[in-house]
Structures are given as structure tokens and as C-alpha cells.
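Incident review: delayed structure delivery

Summary: a single-chain prediction request sat in the queue longer than the usual turnaround. Root cause was a stuck worker, restarted by the on-call engineer. No data loss occurred. The affected request and its eventual output are reproduced below so the record is complete for anyone auditing the incident later.

Affected input:
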Amino acid sequence: MPNTKQMKIDSLEDELRDSKALNKALTILAGEVSCIMNDMAKPGEVEDFFAIMGEASGKRLGKAAKKRFGMIGNVEEALDTFIHRTDMWYGYEMELDHIDGNTLYINIFKCFIRDILKDRKLTTESPLCAITRGYLEGALEELTGKDVSVEIVYGDVDGICREKIIVN
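Output delivered after worker restart:
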């Protein structure tokens, strides 16, 4: 009788190897798309494109969260809901650092975009970072009904990034 436990382990190891290979291929692809777009476009156009892409995705997230939780008028509560009560921020680990008036400061510890930047030896000045900013803006605007803008305060491809969310 075959050792079914070992067969399951072998199968899981094969799946893990395949997933890692696919993840690496997608990381390379995303990095190359960013670099090629940067070479082809005028200054600022690529960042605008990635911001719009992130915002559209964020709006879809915000709509799903609004169905689940209802409209959340307070941006801090909406951010907290996304971070702690949903799995919608897959690929991100972040926390609210502090609030100063109408500005929320967040620390981003894990970001799938930063993984791409590290792999392609790019910095947080890359237009790809606009995806995260757009993602946050779209999701929070959709869930809160408020106009927000997100700006990077500090970015470190090997550490944390700090961003500020300004409620307009």
C-alpha cells in the first residue's frame, strides 16, 4: 500500500514550487511593464496610469466593503475596518501611526509593490508606488464618501513606507 501521507506532502511541495515560480514570473513581468512604460511615456504619465489603475481596484474593494459594512463616514474607522476586519488588503501589512488634524499617517510594513521594486532593484520613487496610493484613495473614497488624497512621506524599499492620507 502506498504511503499516502508522503504522496500528499510531495504534492504540496510541488504546488509550493509552482506557486513560487509563478510569483517570481509575475514579479518580473510587473517590473518590466513598469520599466517599459516609463521608457515609452512622457514624464508623469506612467505614475498617473498606475494611480488610476490602483484607484479603480480600490473602488471595487470599497464597494464590496460598503455592501458588507455599510457606509463608514469616518476615514479612520474605514481604514481600521479594511486593515483588521477584512482580507481585502491581501499583500499589505499596515498600521495607523497617528492622526494630525485631517491627516492620518500610516506605516506600511509589507507591500506587494515593494517586493516588485526590490526584485527589479527600483526605489520607492518608481511610478509603481502610485498603485498603492490609488488603491487607498479609491477604497477609502468609496467606503466613506469623502474626498481623500494619499501622499508618500517616506519610502524605503528595504524597510517601511510611511504615507499620509489627507481628508479634503
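Verification: The chain has a mean pLDDT of 88.
Action items: add queue-age alerting; document worker restart procedure.
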